Each structure stands twice: as structure tokens, then as C-alpha cells.
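Thread title: Can someone regenerate the structure for this chain?

I was given the following input by a collaborator and told the matching C-alpha cells would be attached. They weren't. Posting the sequence so someone can regenerate them.
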Amino acid sequence: MVMPDIWNSFAHTHQLTDTQLDLFKQYATLLQDWSVKINLTTITSAPDILDYHFADSLAAAPLIAKNNYHTIADIGTGGGFPGIPLKIKFPHLTVYLLEVNQKKINFLHEVIRALSLENVIIVDLDWRTFLRTTNYSIDLFCARASLSVKELLRVFASDQYRNVHLLYWASTQWQPTDHEQTYLVEQYPYQVGNKQRVLIQFASHKKSYKVPINGTWK
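Best answer:
Regenerated them for you:
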């Protein structure tokens, strides 16, 4: 049983309403219950879920808040990260969750139902098929522990999505290749739990997309 002050601290840090905090609590319970039944996540204690799933996903919140994003797509979402935490934080978002594993898709349907989330759409296509066959209006693609950067950068060669932004969750050891550097806008270091990580922002045209927050990334 997680102590209430851990939840209170999480809510304070991420400036959540009581309703949003309640949704995160429901989400954590679903993650724990379903992880007993399927290979959903190895992170199942409430403190670790708060740090390494929820807070890690919300590391993108400053970028979402500072831009006029209305629609995001979460590539290889798995248990719904970062798409569902960002949806809870920003209810106005339309969120596409890309996932091909049927058991995880079933879980995502249950989360959407249980949390009464609107404008959250599950897309059961692999990445390359998605790029070839869809035509959604998307502002930002997110990728957290799913595909390689090389594979993700295919988005900028597609007809429909070449002008979107891409946000990639990486370790501090990540280094771009020359090709990847072409699309790199900025790196935003942050800490989650006891780990140092970095968000990598990519775009097809780099010059106008840096979003410093008081000179640093929170």
C-alpha cells in the first residue's frame, strides 16, 4: 500500500487536479491487476509506477504546454506510455495509441473505458504500415522505449507526416549519428526517480522549434 504523501507529492509536482489524480490512481491499479495476467510491465509497485511510467511520461508536459499541440501519436505505446498520462494531464488532446500486441490492445481498451477517456484512438498497425496507409492530422509523435531513432525518422520521409514534430525518450548515453543530427532540434535532460534521462526533439525543419523554459528544461 503506497503512502498517501507519495500521491500528494506526485500531484503537487505535476500540478494535477483532484480529478486527474484520481484517474492516475485508477490507472495504476489497472496496471497492477493486468500485469498479473499478461506480460504488460515489470514495473508494478506504486512508487515505481509513479516514477518510471507516469512521471517519465509527463516529462514531455512542458513541451506540450508551450506549443499549440492538439493531436499526438504514441508509437509502440504498450501499457499506454506516454500517451495516456499526457491525455490525463491535457484533456484537450486527441491521442492515437499505436500498438500491435492484442493483449496490450485489450488492456488499453479497458483503460479508456474505465477512465472514461474521450478522443483516444487505438491503431493496431505497425509503424511502417501506419506511415504508408494513414492520413491523420497529427502534431507530435512520441516514442518511449519503442523503436530506434533510425526507424522513427522515417516519419520525415513520408508524404503525410513530414512536417510533424517527433519526441524521443532516451538515456543520457544516447548520441546522434550524422543523419540523426540533421533532424535534431534540442535535447532536454531531466531526472526521474534516481535516473538521469533526456528527451530528444526532432523536426524536419529545425530553426523555430526550440522551447526553453527559463533557459532550462524542467
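The first helix runs from residue 4 to 13.
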